[in-house]
Amino acid sequence: MNLGSDADQLQRRNRELANLNTIARALNQSVELEETLQTTLAQVAEVLGLKTGWIFLLDEKSGETYLAASLNLPPALVRNPQRMEGRCYCLDVYLDGDMKAAANVNVITCTRLSKLVDGTDGLRYHASIPLYAHGRQLGMLNVASPDWQEITDEDLRLLYTVGDMLGIAIERTRLYEQSVEMGTISERNRLAREIHDTLAQGLAALTLKLESADALLDSDAGGTRVRDLIQASLQLTRANLEEARRSVMDLRAAPLAGQTLPDALAALAAEGEIPVQLRVMGGNRPVSQRIAVGLYRIAQEALTNAHKHSGAALIQLHLEMTPQEIRLRIEDDGHGFDSQHIPENRFGLIGLNERARLLGGYLSIETDPGVGTLLLVTIPMREGER
Q: pTM of the prediction?
């Protein structure tokens, strides 16, 4: 019996359990998907003495993969975010069902790193860890090593266990997000009923009273002027009633109506008379319902303003989504205006600015007479989401 060897093995096992316990505690403290992923990346990298990692997930609706979280990506990948989009060797193996456990992949095999020359931070190997929940594919966790030394079997076993824990955590956070969304829809419907019971019914009662007053004037030859006023009031009241009903219907329906943000923007771009050129980068990356709806409303209001006031021949609508930030750009080639004296009330910029602020972002504007207008909305991801 080799007591020294047994002691070393016991010490390694205790260290492994302590590391797993640390990661498990961190996972149990979060109910938001982005925070869960970023926390796991940071903990795994620290435990293994590495600094770089990334996570791909499968979109539940489209089945496409997207970069859901990253940690200290090398400059070559930061400068070329498109290299982190779409499928790769590791994902192909995983999605084909041929990756059941954590595995080493070298720089020659990795299609994202193989053709890079500079700015790789010396990455030579990465471990790919498949993510499952109840046998269903969720995505893949990768951690990278700057050495030609493969990640050890012991660490691969640890990573595989972490992958199991992360899969369960991903499932839990998605269920939580679904429950929050259902609660939001329920609250929206409750507010819709209240609006209908107050504003709409009040306007309907006013219409009946005005109609009765109008009928009483039938025998009054001198009441022509009064009749005109009543008729005008009736017309206005009916219009307000119809507007109230329309507002209630808008409130009951979710703005995106089950669509992704890029799909909703595409439908929005096709509505106006001025051609709108839409371009999307990183569109497979889902965002929270709150941010998606907020950005859709910003685009909707900005496009409405451009159609009404810009005199443009073309509007460009660009959406760029990365783990670090989301950028929405609306640019027209219209007549513009003096950037030193922006007419906020006329162009609805107060509302746009407020919407961006509520999303944790900001709005910038560039315009001058004769050169068109550029609106740029930037929504940084929280520190815990990077």
A: 0.53
